[in-house]
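Weekly structure sync, notes
Attendees: PL (lead), two postdocs, one rotation student
Agenda item 3: pending single-chain targets
PL asked that the sequence for the first pending target be pasted directly into the notes so everyone works from the same version. It is reproduced below exactly as submitted, 507 residues in total.
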Amino acid sequence: MNTFRRLALLLTLLLAVLPAHAQTTRKKAARKKAAPSSKVVKAKKKKPNTKGQKTPVTAEPTDVQDVESPQPLVFGDPEQPTTPEKPVTTDKPTVATPVPPPATKPHEPVNPNARPSLANTPAVASGTVALFSVARTPATTEAAARLEGELTRHLQRGGDIPFVDLGTAFPPPEPTPLTQADGLYDEGRAAYDNLDPEAAETKFRAAAEAYEKSPGDFRPERLGETYLFLGAARLLNGDAAGAKAAFVRAAVAEPSTRPDKALFGQDVQKAFEDARAEVSARPAGTLVVESKPAGAKVSVRGQELGVTPLRGVTVPAGHHAVVVTLPGHTPHAEYTEVKSGASTQVKAELSPGPGLTAIRDASARAGSQAAFDSETLPPDTAAIADRLDARYVVVAAVSQDKKGRLKAELQAWDVRTQARLRGVDIDLSGRERDQSPEAAAQQARDFIQGAVSPRVAESGASGQSLLKRPWFWAVVGGAAAVTAGAVFVATQDKGRPFNPITGGTGF
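Predicted structure, written out during the meeting:
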C-alpha cells in the first residue's frame, strides 16, 4: 500500500508540471508561426482598355492567415529566466559591487556629439559632506567626540572629500567697535601735539587698558602705536624707566612699530631702539594651547600659529593676546604673559553658538536608534543637509552594551538620491582591525565617491519585489498544486486507491 501511494504522489507531481511544459511549448510554436510577417495586401491595377475606356482600379483581396496571439504566460518567460535577488542583511555594510567603466578601444575615434551611456558608468559623487558623531548615553560623550575627530581626520587625509565649510555656515561675529579706546587714543594724540605730556600720558594709558580689554577685537598696530606714544610722553615727563617699559610693550605688541622721525626726537628714537634690541636679545618662550573641542585655530598678535592641541610653539617673551577660534563657537581670547625660556599654557573652553547648538541637537536625533532603523530619510538628517548645504550626511552613534563596552555604528545618507550606506560597525576597543574607525571612514569614502552603491533594496530607485516576480508565483503555483494533490491522496479511502490518470478510483 505504501508503494502504491508513492506512485500516486509521483503521478500527481507529473500532472502539476505537464501543463506548464505544454504551455511553454505552445508559446514557442506561436513564436515560430509569428516569425514570418503577415502578407501585405497589394492592389493590382488592371491594364487600361485599348478602346480608350477607363477601367476602375480594384484591389483584389488576398487571403491572409491569422496568427494566433500567444497566451499570457503565468510562469514567466522560460527563455529569459530571472535570477531572484538575495535578501539584504544588516550584518555587513549594505553596499553593492562597483560597476567598472566600459573600456574604450584605442583605435576607435571618439565622437564628441555622441551622448554618453549611463548604463555602465559608475556614478561620480559630487557635493560636500557633513559628519557628526553622537552619544546615545551621557557616559559615551567623550568617546563620541574622539570618534568624530578620528573619522574626520581619516576622511580628510586624502584631500578628496569636500567637507562642509563651517566657517561659511557659521561666520565669526563682527569685531566690536572699540569706540572708547579709539577716542582715548585721539585725545592722547591731541594732548601730545599740544605739548601736554601729563594729560597725554593719562589718555594713552587709559587707551591701552581699553584695547587690552578686548583681546579678540584689538588691532596690534594701534596697540603698538599707543604704547609708543605712552613711552614718549613718559620720557618727556622725565620717567625714563616708565618710558622703557612702554617701549618694550610696543615692540612686543607689534614688532613692526617704528617711531616716526617727523613726530619724535632723537631721544625717543634711541630709547625705542634700545628697547627693541633688548626684546630681541631675550630668549623666547614656548606656548601650549589646548581647547575643548580640539581643532581650533590659535592666533597671536593676529598671526595664525596652528590648531589645537598646539604644543611648544616658540613665541617672543612678553604680554601677548592669544585668540582661539572654532567655527560655530564663541571665540576665546585672553592676554597671556609668556616668560622668557619657559612654557606657558592656555586652556580654552569653547561654547557652541546658537546655530551650531541647533545642528548638534538635530544630529543627536539623527543618530538615534529609531532614525537608524528608519527605511526613509529622517527629517533631522534632511534638515542638517539643508542648513549646511551638504549632499552627504555621515552620522556615527556611540553606545554601550550590557557589559559596559563601547561600540559604534555608522550610517551615511546621500540626500539627493536618498541612498544610504548602513550597517557599518565600529570597534572602539582596537581589537577588530576590519572594524576600526579608519576602515569605517574608508567605507564612507567609497560610498561618497561612488565607488560602491547601495543595493536596490536600500535605495528604492529600481528593482522589483519578490511579490512582483513572475517566476515566484510560478513556483508558488506549482507547489500549491503538488501539495493539493498530495493532500487529496492522503485523505482518500484507504481501501480504494485514487487513480491520478482517470480521476476516479481503482484501475
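Discussion points:
- The chain has a mean pLDDT of 74.
- The CA atoms of residues 118 and 422 lie 25 Å apart.
Action: rotation student to compare against the earlier draft before next sync.
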